[in-house]
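pinging the channel bc i need a second pair of eyes. not urgent but kinda urgent?? the chain im working w is below, pasted from the shared doc
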Amino acid sequence: MQNTGFLRRIGAMLYDALLVGALLFLVTIPFIAARGGEPVEHGDNLIYQVTLLIVIYAFFVGFWSGPGRTLGMQSWRLQLENDQGEVPTLAQASLRLFASLLSWLPLGLGFLWQIWDSENLTWHDRISHTRLVHYPREEKSG
């Protein structure tokens, strides 16, 4: 067990981005149908925008505070843990999501910080007192 490396984290993020994109696409369909097939303009539909934010929040916080891993993290054998080695609480997972936005704001510096951090932690790992741990595949004996 070790804190995950940068490339493994990016791999899981890309996988999850595809899943979230598909979810947002599915959630958009009823809004298009309600407009008679016309596209939903981001600036004129507050309910649509809030719905998209709720879906993103529910995806990440639900997976992080439930099983402790998203589907992308599962594929890369990553587990989100708090400082006690447990699955994060709902509050920790929520804080992690909002802190990850701070990590993106300065051109992703909060994510890149992991490269120089002695414990391979990002800004949002440190802020939320969580960490991504890599559990390598167990070797089969015999």
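so Residues 2-134 form one domain. and The two ends are 23 Å apart (CA to CA). — does that match what u expected or am i reading it wrong
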